[in-house]
Amino acid sequence: MSLPNLLAPIAEDMNALDRVIRTRLDSDVPLIRTVGEYIIGGGGKRMRPALLLLVARALGYAGTHHHLLAAVVEFIHTSTLLHDDVVDESSLRRGRGTANAVFGNAASVLVGDFLYSRAFQMMVETDSLSVMRILADATNVIAEGEVLQLLNVHDPDVTEERYFQVVRYKTGKLFEASAQLGAVLANVGAEQEAAAAEYGRRVGTAFQLIDDALDYSGDAEALGKNVGDDLREGKPTLPLIRVLQVGSPAQQALIRNAIETGEADFAAVAAAIRDTDALQYTRAAAVAEADAAQKAVSGFPVSEFSKSLIEFCAFAVTRDR
């Protein structure tokens, strides 16, 4: 199952989205255009805007504001990536140097700010308080998630509850907002809007769980980032938390030291994760989220768009990048 196949029903919408993105990136400041084109043109799955487009179509929307709001979502997501890479001191994303590695931290932060503010300029054009409320709330929750994650760094006593809170805030919230916006555009009732929001939140959580598993089982070239980055940054993700729950005393000591210092032997940590059920446990949690997402949209009208939403759930947990 490939992402292009899943998104085939909205191929024209995705092309329209691309045109909006490139038009709205325009600025009289050359550095903004340069950095913006670099990060936007660097590929990426564009899953969040795709979910907005799919939900809107699945629920019968026939206007054009979904292209605008899909671009808003992508700008918000891209701005968080620019800021994240500075905070995490990352050097590789999507198989090439991060914007901060190429242009410097100051340019990355400031262009990220530009994308945030441009996103808010664009969302106002819908003249919808519901749209603005959803996006304003989402950006605030994402910022809270970033701070929560910062508090968790280098803390080996982080619980699953604290871990999942960060995932829901930092990753799940924008997926949730994207799907919910598709429902709002389609002007459906509260029940379907809530179902769309739950779908986005659940499938976004599943994606993050698989990302966290791939950090210890994936191939750097396939992933387009440095495998083991989470460990070097001292982030206690679910595979590490699971080893601390079920590993031998030696394995637990290894993981605690890895989280506290970020300097442990990656191969040894990966072996400890493989020798316990940490990867299976993380993937099982992802599958549970994906199953819940599929259930949330099971009542949507049957169409090629709703079929893609359901297949998206399987893609979220079977991908290798």
TrEMBL record:
Role: Supplies octaprenyl diphosphate, the precursor for the side chain of the isoprenoid quinones ubiquinone and menaquinone.
Enzyme Commission number(s) from the entry: 2.5.1.90
Protein family according to the UniProt entry: Belongs to the FPP/GGPP synthase family.
Gene Ontology biological process terms from the UniProt entry: isoprenoid biosynthetic process
Keywords of this entry: Magnesium, Metal-binding, Transferase
Cofactor: Mg(2+)
Transferase as UniProt keyword: yes
Gene Ontology MF annotations: all-trans-octaprenyl-diphosphate synthase activity; metal ion binding
Family matches, as Pfam families: polyprenyl_synt
Listed transmembrane segments: none
Domain of life: Bacteria
PROSITE patterns in UniProt: POLYPRENYL_SYNTHASE_1 (PS00723)
Naturally occurring in which organism (per UniProt): Pigmentiphaga aceris
PANTHER family in the record: ALL TRANS-POLYPRENYL-DIPHOSPHATE SYNTHASE PDSS1 (PTHR12001:SF69), GERANYLGERANYL PYROPHOSPHATE SYNTHASE (PTHR12001)
Catalytic reaction(s) noted: 5 isopentenyl diphosphate + (2E,6E)-farnesyl diphosphate = all-trans-octaprenyl diphosphate + 5 diphosphate
The protein's name in its UniProt record: Octaprenyl diphosphate synthase
